[in-house]
Specification:
- Helices cover about 50% and strands about 15% of the residues.
- By secondary structure, the protein is of the alpha/beta class.
- The chain has two domains: about 1-125 and about 290-320, Isopropylmalate Dehydrogenase (3-Layer(aba) Sandwich), CATH 3.40.718.10; about 125-280, Isopropylmalate Dehydrogenase (3-Layer(aba) Sandwich).
- An eleven-stranded mixed sheet has the order 3-2-1-4-11-10-5-6-9-7-8, with helices on both faces.
- Strand 2, helix 2 (about 45-55) and strand 3 (about 60-65) form a beta-alpha-beta unit.
Length: about 325
Amino acid sequence: MSLARPVTVAVDAVGGDNAPGEILSGIALALSDDPALHVLITGPAEVIDPFCADHPGRTTPVVTTEIIEMGEHPANAVRTKKDSSIVVGSRLVKEGRAEAFFSAGSTGACMAAATLVIGRIKGVSRPAIATVLPTAGPPCVMLDVGANADCKAQQLVQFAHMGAAYATVVLGVEKPRVALLNIGEEPTKGSALAQETYALLTEQMPDFVGNVEGNDVLVGVADVIVTDGFTGNVALKLLEGTSRVLLGQVKAAMTANAVSTLAAALLKPAMVRLKQRLDPDTYGGAPLLGINGISIIGHGSSNSTAVANALRVAASAARGGLTEKITAAISSAN
């Protein structure tokens, strides 16, 4: 995959807890890293016009007059606030003016706009939110992590195909190993849904490696881990919370006294690398897979590094033909 091909990404400048400052700083970082990147920025004129004036030729302001707040009902807000930064950004993808859209605003509104404005890929039953997790080996993709609390077995199989395409395009895995998150390794373990899904994945996914339990998620036994959105969201939040607490405890232990502080100074470079490896910001936002375009949803607290990495992922997905690969995989599976 070459970085030479120009790609245009739309960005919501006013979504997230740290908007617009960290969003615009992240855009600036991404532009510096990728000379072939162009960004369409949605938001109020007083926010985006000065920034675009400082980055001529690389950015284009798309002035919007409405903002979807975190507490609003997602679908209702998308239907009524048609000139909001999220809806307009999604429309830019629908119209082909942008190949991808990123927002750190309301996750529900981003999902609703992607589904209602951009639309689903033909044959996709439900889009799924994916996330990249660090493991003992290369990172892996887990989905769904929140879009669909209740799923059918065939929908989980579609998630597997979409996750495999993402792992290939963005993570560079030629033949992704797919696993099903379950409470045991045997085919007969788990709920009726898990058992039915296991049978379908065995039939339809040549690189299906079986069930994976929660304690093996970060071991690196699979490149794609499939589950329903309820289980996936609980697992993701548990992993994030555990990582945050452990790093905090390590920091406290390493600064407890003069001797440990001296040792910490020697270990600081290694600890910084570890923190970066475990930090979700390192892997960009969470893609909503299954829509007829690329939509990356950032964490509400996204900083400039997270924004820049999300734009890197968006550009990589566009250049790698992620939407086309998912379309082909779903068509073949159906």
